[in-house]
Specification:
The complex is a heterodimer of chains A (about 500) and B (about 60). Chain A is of the alpha+beta class and about 500 residues long. Chain A has helices at about 20-30, 65-75, 110-135, 165-180, 180-185, 195-200, 255-275, 290-295, 315-330, 335-355, 365-380, 380-390, 400-405, 415-425, 435-440, 475-485, 490-495; strands at about 5-10, 10-15, 35, 50, 55, 85, 90-95, 100-105, 140, 155-160, 190, 205, 215-220, 225-230, 240-245, 305, 310-315, 445-450, 455-460, 460-465. In chain A, the strands form 7 sheets. A 7-stranded antiparallel beta sheet of chain A has the order 3-6-7-8-1-10-15. With about 60 residues, chain B is mostly helical. Chain B is built from 3 helices and no strands. The longest helix of chain B is centred in the middle third of the chain and has 11 residues, at about 30-40. Chain B is elongated. Chain B starts with a helix and ends in a 7-residue tail after the last helix. The chains are: A alpha+beta (about 500), B mainly alpha (about 60). The interface of A and B includes residues 22 and 224 of A.
Chain lengths: ~500, ~60
């Protein structure tokens, strides 16, 4: 398993308009109070490169957003100039279209991933507090995916995947899986934002913050149009050997358990594909976009979808099919794999028999119970319920409703506070993030730019490029272990690692 | 909200009305967890979500 998460945070800045938000967010990121490196090497990025083997001509852009961008730039010409903080933990904090975005370092274990995801919340919050102190304005940070007015922002997952697996097999495995996994990965949302649902159907509460913002099945777009299976092809690794599966059809989870189960089950499907498993042809959904929306909005919790052959099947049964294939393929699972298979089965059983019994594990259940509790005594004012929904995602430990539940021991944790604090400054010790974090901490004066797979240095007047593309998957481990078995100094890094 | 959700929420039995009684009253005591959480939710400004506006992201 080799994975990472990217989260675009929502930020409320007192007295700040949408036009000025980008500048405020940039200032928030620049307020990061600890050592970080500011120059990102963009030469490895090509968002128009498509997994299907071509370059898309353009990525669709929302015309309303384009107009706002023009207005922002007319006021602040450098508002969208790159703003990066490569962190000591090997992760990256940066400005993405008026959102602070935090990318975890690459991880191999679910515990590391959850710790670094949670560290991201604290990093963005510490920047916001520092900015708030300097600017004298109130700032709130939300780890969610919606503003309740039609704007959505992403939480993306990344998984290393062998390129030898045909794209069709990837699509056939992941489209039904991604549409149905929201029964345990959804973060829950009060109401619906889309005009097409507003008048037609009363949606009081739905499983997913993101599902209704998806309008296509496959594609490279991420903003104006959102496909269930994103085909962006930026491997950040040996491109002949690997793809990076870039999943955009997921919610930001507050629950540590939901994050681990979301990434764990998805990584298991990757492992199954790499071990030769293929999704049955009959499993394909008749209309994936419709199914994605309908599962999210089914308040009766039946979650039935139509398959290509006209038969109907529940999301739970579709997920069971993946689970059973994994149990058959990995009968002697241990470590994370064993945890995932056990918890996946437990959660599917509970979703069938007593979904509300999962309030300590799943965000949509925890939030629903809070909302029902409030409605029982205080009524159902729509604005108030949306405000409660938003407050659930406030990452401030003293303000957020999720953290009120956590403080009472009502949430199942994967990592403790010490492990989260440690992850703010320390990379995982078994991925190339170790090298990135070390360079930021110990050799930033020599660094010219850095990325997921490269580090460009100027040493004694000579330009050197450390190439970290081979340090992924199983291939990377022996090199990292070799580095850890000796003195961790630059001279040795340059000897052990491929350079050019 | 679906019946499945409603059914599982804790509910107090309705007391029998006696002669001269003013009718059922709300219980004075709630479980501490619920009370604190409710109080926290009451304090949330209902305008927060309405004034929360974001740019579309990816």
């Amino acid at each position: 398993m080799f994975f990472g998460l990217e989260t675009e945070y929502g930020v409320f800045v007192e007295n700040c308009t949408l036009v000025d938000l980008a500048c405020a967010v940039k200032a928030i990121i620049e307020s990061y109070p600890y050592k970080a490196f500011g120059s990102w090497d963009y030469s490895n990025e090509s968002p128009r490169r498509d997994m299907r083997g071509f370059y898309v001509k353009d990525l669709a852009v929302d015309p309303r957003e384009e107009a706002l961008d023009r207005e922002t730039i007319s006021r602040s010409p450098d508002a969208f100039e790159p703003c990066n903080k490569v962190l000591a933990n090997g992760g990256r904090l940066y400005h993405d279209h008026a959102h602070p975005e935090y990318s975890t370092p690459e991880c191999r274990t679910l515990k590391d991933l959850v710790a670094h995801d949670k560290a991201g919340e604290r990093i963005v919050l510490m920047c916001a507090k520092e900015f708030s102190r300097k600017a004298g304005v109130m700032v709130k940070v939300f780890k969610n995916n919606t503003d309740f007015h039609g704007s959505s922002y992403g939480t993306h997952e990344n998984y290393l995947l062998l390129r030898s697996i045909p794209f069709e097999a990837v699509a056939e495995a992941f489209i039904p899986f991604l549409c149905t996994r929201i029964i345990f990965t959804g973060a829950g949302k009060v109401g619906s934002e889309l005009a097409c649902y507003k008048g037609r159907k009363k949606v009081r509460y739905q499983l997913s913050q993101r599902a209704e913002h998806f309008d296509s099945v496959v594609g490279a777009d991420t903003q104006f149009h959102r496909p269930i299976l994103n085909t962006r092809d930026e491997p950040h690794a040996d491109e002949h050997k690997y793809r990076r599966l870039h999943i955009i059809a997921g919610d930001a989870n507050m629950s540590q358990y939901a994050t681990a189960l979301k990434v764990g089950t998805t990584a298991v499907v990757v492992e199954m594909l790499e071990n030769g498993w293929r999704a049955p042809k009959w499993l394909q959904l008749a209309n994936p976009v419709k199914a994605f929306h309908e599962i999210s909005m089914d308040e009766e919790m039946r979650w039935i979808v139509e398959l290509d052959d006209g038969k109907r099947m529940s999301a739970i049964d579709i997920q069971r099919l993946y689970l059973e294939a994994a149990q058959k393929m990995f009968p002697k699972a241990d470590g994370d794999l064993k945890w995932v298979l056990g918890e996946w089965e437990y959660v599917l059983d509970m979703l069938e028999s007593n979904p509300l019994g999962l309030s300590d594990r799943l965000d949509w259940v925890a939030k629903l119970q809070l909302i029902e509790m409030f409605k029982e005594t205080e009524g159902a004012d729509c604005d108030k319920l949306k405000a409660i929904d938003l407050a659930y995602h406030n990452v401030d430990l003293n303000e957020g409703l999720y953290y009120a539940l956590e403080a009472k021991g009502m949430t199942k944790r994967i990592v403790n506070d010490e492990e989260i604090e440690h992850a703010i400054f320390h990379p995982p010790t078994d991925t190339r993030a170790l090298i990135r974090g070390w360079l930021v901490t110990h050799s930033s004066s020599l660094l010219k730019s850095i990325s997921w797979c490269t580090a460009n240095l100027l040493v004694d007047g000579k330009r050197l490029k450390i190439d970290m593309r081979s340090l992924v998957g199983a291939d990377g481990l022996p090199i990292i272990e070799e580095l850890l078995n000796g003195e961790f100094v630059l001279e040795r890094l340059l000897k052990v690692l491929p350079t050019g | 909200m679906p019946e499945q959700v409603r059914r599982q929420l804790p509910s107090e039995p309705i007391p029998q009305r006696k002669e001269g009684d003013d009718g059922p009253r709300s219980p004075d005591v709630q479980p501490p967890d619920t009370r604190e959480l409710l109080e926290r939710m009451r304090r949330i400004d209902p305008r927060e979500a309405r004034r929360y506006r974001q740019r579309s992201g990816e």
